[in-house]
Automatic annotation (TrEMBL):
CDD domains: NMNAT. This is Probable nicotinate-nucleotide adenylyltransferase. It holds the Pfam family CTP_transf_like. Keywords: ATP-binding, NAD, Nucleotide-binding, Nucleotidyltransferase, Pyridine nucleotide biosynthesis, Transferase. Its EC number is 2.7.7.18. It comes from Aliicoccus persicus. Coiled coil: none annotated. The gene is nadD. One of its GO terms (biological process) is NAD+ biosynthetic process. Catalyzes the reversible adenylation of nicotinate mononucleotide (NaMN) to nicotinic acid adenine dinucleotide (NaAD). Residues 5-160 form the Cytidyltransferase-like domain. One of its GO terms (molecular function) is nicotinate-nucleotide adenylyltransferase activity.
């Protein structure tokens, strides 16, 4: 099997994230994608939504997909977990399968500063998701997958939530309902 690992803070998850799951799965012929919400990114100091709320939102966002799983592997640790350790966990869980790590261009630009970044590149295929027409050159051994542009960010959603502005078009309906009722 070919399994994609897609991690992030997802604070909150939005339609752009779901689009990444759909487009990368199709482009790479993945059998499954595992979405891994972080307890807290090693590169961030806080998140607006708590870990449990983010886990719930991610689960709601992908519940209709049979070939997408959500894991609490990082959240259950109660601390920041390096991507290398997460990938090793899945490599041990699926020793006979190909593990493909999915990152965005923002992560790609700082990848050399990541914990055990060279080891990740030696062990795993790393795919960089780029928005169409994004002016960035992806160097080998990274692979690039271009996807349609979704002009949305978790920051924009958080700002709209704080300012009581509409944001339902930016997140899956189930996530919108959860956020309106709980935050």
């Amino acid at each position: 099997m070919k399994i994609g690992i897609f991690g992030g803070t997802f604070d909150p998850i939005h339609v752009g994230h779901v689009n990444v799951v759909e487009e990368v799965k199709f482009a790479l012929g993945l059998d499954k994608i595992i979405v891994v919400p972080a307890f807290l990114s090693p590169h961030k100091t806080s998140s607006t939504l708590g870990a449990d709320a983010r886990m719930k939102c991610v689960s709601l966002a992908v519940e209709a997909y049979d070939d997408v799983e959500v894991t609490d592997f990082e959240i259950s640790q109660g601390k920041s977990i390096y991507s290398y350790n997460t990938l090793q966990y899945f490599n041990e869980l699926y020793p006979d399968d190909e593990i493909i790590f999915i990152i965005g261009t923002d992560q790609y630009e700082n990848f050399d500063k990541w914990y055990k970044s060279k080891d990740i590149l030696e062990i795993y295929k790393v795919v960089v998701v780029s928005r169409n027409h994004e002016d960035i050159t992806i160097q080998s051994p990274f692979e690039k997958v271009e996807i349609p542009i979704f002009d949305v960010s978790s920051t924009l959603i958080r700002e709209r939530m704080v300012n009581n502005e509409p944001f339902q078009h930016l997140v899956p309906h189930t996530v919108y309902q959860y956020l309106k009722e709980n935050h």
